[in-house]
Amino acid sequence: MSPTAPAPDAAATLRGAGLRVTAQRVAVLDALASRPHAPVDELHAAVSEHIPGIALQTVHGIVNDLTGAGIAQRVSLPGAPSALYELNRRDNHHHLQCVVCGKVEDVPCVVGASPCLHPSHDHGMRVLEASVTFRAICPECERNGNG
User: Does the structure show a pLDDT above 50 at 1?
Assistant: First the structure.
């Protein structure tokens, strides 16, 4: 399992990004800090424990706000049933994904400094980021004969 990010000072993080501090935003930010690579429905379930009755659409809106403000980032992985979200660590890390159970782990930059990879031809574009997903089989799935 990935080590979880230290819980940010949610109010300061929101204010620093120019977002209003609300109980719902703080709860979603806390859920993201403790659940890296979470889909919105999982974040909604976690937030619902503290704020009963919060709508799934509200959590979607908050995640979009956090992503737009650069606090969170969307992680789109092949074969994942929905987008996953994590706190934006601004470190250009990559992901390792089990092709059997879907488990996702962070992988530090593959080699060298950001953006880690350089295309053989950049067509005149300035590369900002390189995203790599390693598809693998996790040890639990391997032990269970699923690989």
Answer: no
